[in-house]
């Protein structure tokens, strides 16, 4: 189904049990398979498969949502981002060239460009949990299983192998806590 005032640009394909809300822009060059898309979303040159996208979400160009991806209201996912079996909370901003797999992301989180969840250890898929209001610096590797507390921050290029406490800045390879942060209002 396609909602009123939604525009489907050329070379876009809707397959399976796909539903798209009102006032969306799909494409050009997008493939949507068995996915639910809310209202006022923009999906540009991207592939969405068995995913759920809430209202006011922007994806692409060249985004990929795989099975089990769920983007809450107001999420922005940049160029060449990929999400698999993960929930991104309201207001999450996911930078370019990032991969999130088997992750639960809280509200108003910044995922810096080049961030990846290292979720497969060769045998098991492991979860990454990121609390609300977290800032993940560009090129951070989150080696699952790992939990990043509310309001925490990582420095660019950090390799996170252990949990980070709330309101803590962690930097380095491997990442280590260097100071506590003030709770913002």
Verbal overview:
The chain has strands at residues 7-8, 13-15, 19-20, 25-26, 31-33, 36-37, 42-43, 47-49, 52-53, 58-59, 64-65, 70-71, 76-77, 82-84, 87-88, 93-94, 99-101, 103-105, 110-111, 116-118, 128-130, 135-136, 141-143, 146-148, 153-154, 159-160, 168-171, 176-180. β27 (168-171) and β28 (176-180) form a beta hairpin. The mean pLDDT is 97. It is mostly beta strands. The protein contains no helices and 28 strands. The strands form 4 sheets. It has an 11-stranded mixed β-sheet, with no helix packed on it. Strands 3-6-9-12-15-18-21-24 form an 8-stranded parallel β-sheet, with no helix packed on it. Strands 2-5-8-11-14-17 form a 6-stranded parallel β-sheet, with no helix packed on it. Helices cover 0% and strands 38% of the residues. The termini are far apart. It is elongated and about 50 Å long.
Low-confidence stretches: none
Radius of gyration: 17 Å
Class derived from helix and strand content: mainly beta
Biggest sheet layout: 11 strands, mixed
């Amino acid at each position: 189904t396609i909602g009123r005032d939604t525009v489907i640009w050329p070379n876009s394909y809707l397959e399976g049990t796909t539903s798209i809300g009102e006032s969306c822009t799909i494409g050009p060059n997008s493939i949507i398979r068995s996915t639910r898309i809310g209202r006022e979303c923009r999906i540009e040159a991207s592939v969405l498969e068995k995913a759920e996208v809430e209202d006011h979400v922007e994806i692409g160009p060249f985004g990929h949502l795989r099975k089990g991806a769920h983007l809450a209201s107001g999420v922005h996912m940049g160029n060449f981002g990929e999400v698999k079996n993960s929930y991104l909370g309201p207001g999450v901003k996911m930078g370019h060239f990032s991969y999130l797999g088997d992750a639960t992301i809280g509200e108003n989180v910044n995922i810096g460009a080049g961030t990846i969840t290292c979720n497969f250890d060769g045998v098991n898929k492991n979860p990454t949990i990121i609390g609300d209001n977290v800032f993940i610096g560009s090129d951070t590797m989150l080696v699952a299983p790992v939990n990043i507390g509310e309001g925490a921050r990582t420095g660019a290029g950090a390799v996170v192998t252990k949990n980070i406490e709330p309101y803590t800045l962690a930097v380095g390879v491997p990442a280590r806590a260097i100071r506590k942060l003030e709770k913002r209002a």
